[in-house]
## 1
Amino acid sequence: MVTAPGLSVACPVREAGAEDAVAGVPARWVATPGSVPEAAELLRACSELGLVVVPRGGGTKLDWGMPPTSVDVVVDTSGLTGVEHEAGDLVAVVGAGTPRAALQELLGAAGQELALDQPIPGPAAERSTIGGIVSTATAGPRRLLRGGPRDLVIGAALVRADGVVSRSGGKVVKNVAGYDLARLLCGAYGTLGLVVEVAFRLHPRSQARSWLHCLAGHPDDAYRITRAVLDSQVVPSALEVERTARGWELVTLLEGTPAGVQARAGRLSGLLGEGAVELERPPPGWGIFPGAADDVLIKLTSSLPGVPRVLAGVEGLTAAAEVRGSAGSGVLHAAVPGGTAAADLAEILRRLRRVTAAHGGSAVVLRAPAGLRDAVDIWGPVPGLDLMRRLKREFDPQARMSPGRFVGGI
């Protein structure tokens, strides 16, 4: 039993330091529950005391979204680890604090994997946790074939702000009771409660991979090639586009058995023409968010026919922007230098939102230096905002879970 002033719970609690601030907002305490019951007891005690709670996994995306309005208790999920792997059912139930890298290593021993790539570069990638990936709906290149977190989550356990544990879905793919609740947690930034467990649908690990590179040049050419690849029978796992000094370049990933990949790579090379080059390894930067840690990172989405218009829109805005993402699924990321003036960034967002909205998409700032983040509208227009606010009131009527982090001040 460890006691913090006014907070008496079974899990370890310590005073927060400067390193525990959330997007610049200082915290009072850090609590580390080691089980779901301890997490429930902690949130129940926080609710009784009217304390504001912010979950934290590996801390790799705490600067995403907006800063919370305040932070009393940071809930460190590093004690909520563990994997229940049902290899025969291709399902795993994973503790929210489990690092993605550790999960993939365990699943790999059984020839399986969670088909979610890691777009966070460098050492931070090793700290990225399952709870953080789900809460920010982070995915990488293979979203084209496998989907993102919303497509792979089949169940979840959530501790609500009042300490009540809610579960949805199950441990087998066919059990989809409550499935929508599990998906609702994806991308909620911890504003609906504390995610403590997640059940995932898994896939067999591919025996072979091949990357085929070609130069597209113009956005319309990039779209033409993308459409041709998707309409073919090669079944790509990913189709990424990147802006380089030579124009727009495309890389297609094929996965499967050695013989199958070789045959499909041959057909794809014929489709792409003489300029196609087959690679044994992914090219530099493959699947990684563009830009540096202090740049503005913008997520751009659109329908597939809108991809060339979005590419052209970025091309016409700023020569300094780095752009990389999924040409096949219409999810791109652009990095704008962090030293961009606020007025210039606001104009860039206005023009990008005009293009993406015309094709059923959006332009959202995931990360930005504090001065820029506070000076622009990072979310843009959000359909269904009233419904989101009603859901927030249903799950967290006192607004004590990560208040202000999500769209519309949720």
## 2
Amino acid sequence: MALFDQVTDGWLELLAASPAFLKAIAFFVVWAGLWLPIVIPLATLLNWRPPQPLTTKQKLPLLASLYLIAPLIVWGASFVEGASFSDYGVQTQNLTSLLISLGLGLSLALLGLTLVFGIQWTLGWVDWHGENVGRLIPILLPILLLALWISGTEELIFRGFLLNKFQQDYSTWVAGAIASLIFALLHLVWEREETLPQVPGLWLMGMVLTLARLLDGGSLGLACGLHAGWIWGLSCLDTAQMITYTGIGAKLLTGIAEKPLAGVAGILCLLGTGVVIKLLYMGIPLFSMH
């Protein structure tokens, strides 16, 4: 009981010292509260009962219902605080620059995945199934649109709204680390066993995306492009069954449960991406957003 009281007192002190944490908690409470009346009948309709693992056909409708609500919550919070979506990185007033950053992010993400899997193929760690290209072509556009939607929603929340809130109480990098940790841990909601080994990689991914927003002058364009590119590339490879792991490479290198973010290859891809975008935006300060 003494330990529990100490932990509880510590959390209360943290919340009292950081209004940002209170705002973050309020955001997720409202989000969950609005989602529950939707997800309960939807889960019944899909014949899913937690903690059963989700199939793709079950996960997509649940994810869609959750992500459709999120921008409304952000809009409500911004309305209360007198902010706007542009403050959170959705800078549509310069649409050309936003699209260029988005395209650059997509290109860099796909280039990084190509390099990583190309090296693994050369080493004999993966087999390439060119005969499945026919499966790939029809899914390219639908998965791209889905990836843009998912990445746009998640970037608005984690690298937009939450990053801004935590910056009110902490330095930019501490704020980014906290928002990235929440981003990583919330992925456990869907698939705990497969996601747990990916948590460090997901956190690092969040930090690279934080760097992308800072380098892009506070815009989410580059971060959304990178995030969407990773989702698009990996989902297309998986759905079309373009590659299979041979088992020659150690799981620690290729990724536990064949998840790149749970292996050294995925971590190096993220670190390499961070280095590349910093070199491309050389000379831009990283400690403030304008």
## 3
Amino acid sequence: MNKDLILDLLKKVRGGKLTPSQAAERLSSLPFVDFGDAKVDSHRALRQGFPEVILGEGKTPEQVVKIAGKIADSGGPLLITRILPEPAKFVIKSLGGGSYDPISRTLVYRKGKIKRRGKGTILVISAGTSDMPVAEEAAVTAQVMGNRVERLYDVGVAGIHRLLSYVEKLRKARVIIVVAGMEGALASVVGGMVSVPVIAVPTSIGYGASFKGLAALLSMLNSCASNVSVVNIDNGFGAATVASTINCLK
């Protein structure tokens, strides 16, 4: 963060040359923090309502700690996705706190309680227990972003009576995330039962001809339920971000 720029903006506000809203708009586009191998967008929360999220996959523990420290210092909350247990322990020790979930492979660090932002409930549904890692990535992300989250797992179309017994829960949600592998049919079924946005997440779970999630992705893209939109394979984080954006609309 460039302190000289901020001081200049504050002086202009005090002198009447800028309104507070104009100054806030300029603050939202201030530069990032350059670490060389990483450039931390320290103003993302101001622009988008939530700080930059770290993808732990492909980064060294030292790189993650460096980025995480800056985000945590700015007030957080901090969310790291796709991080393995050993690097997670290193990050938690370095930050002096945090919680790790081995199912979703997420690490959350925050100071104090998370402020509630969402207007309603985001319901995360999984077709099978094997889809839980992606479903939990979505659920944890949505919770950290300030939403009320409910879960409904292992209700795939192979035993559709399981889903039908929760119709009222489906219809009370403001946004629904459906996580499914195999042929991905669950998203269309749920979409046809509700009047709210359904965000479908294809997973790489399935046998040979599922092509590591491609079959589910194509099925979801061709859904006959018109309220279904689709994110990429195994992208629980992306689904939760979109769901949170919808749920936080006034």
